[in-house]
Amino acid sequence: MIRILLADDETLIRDALAGLLGLEEDFEVVAVAASGTEAVAAARHHRPDICLLDLQMPGCDGIEAAAQILAELPTTGCLVVTSHGRPGHLKKALATGVRGFLPKTTAAAELGRVIRQVNRGGRHVDPQLAAEAIAAGDSPLTPREADVLELAGDGAPVEEIALRAHLSPGTVRNYLSSAVAKLGTQNRHEAIALARRQGWI
Length: 201
Fold this sequence. Notes:
It contains 10 helices and 6 strands. It is an alpha/beta fold and 201 residues long.
């Protein structure tokens, strides 16, 4: 029996997926979670074979949750499902140790096959997402530039970004300027849009 933890912040999707997986003779959904933080706690308690994690959740996202789970339970197979499959997310997930990455448009039968494959120690990456990741290339941004650009994404002023990033306003301006130059855009708004399209933030 493959013991599965399922995490998704959308109740309808979470319940429907739990019901579908529960129909499989070799699957048992041992826990569900509505956030990345809940997923980590549930994994610690239930020690599942597979953690099926939505990418975008409150608390911490699916990749961050997978990193925490794998730090404590390294033999657990973590899969990330997403409706926002950007190349940067895929690369970050694989670097974290995630063994499956697939879109929410995946058919139920295919999802079942992937869960079994990962449970046997295999890996699965959606072919289209893999091709897009290769085409996008690596991010030219340093981790700090990416962090500052992401914090600027909601239109926050430099002073607020500086407080949240524990940096001086001048350093934030330098990081933003460097990111804009590296991405070849006219301003930080264009830089943010480009970095998001590529999945670099």
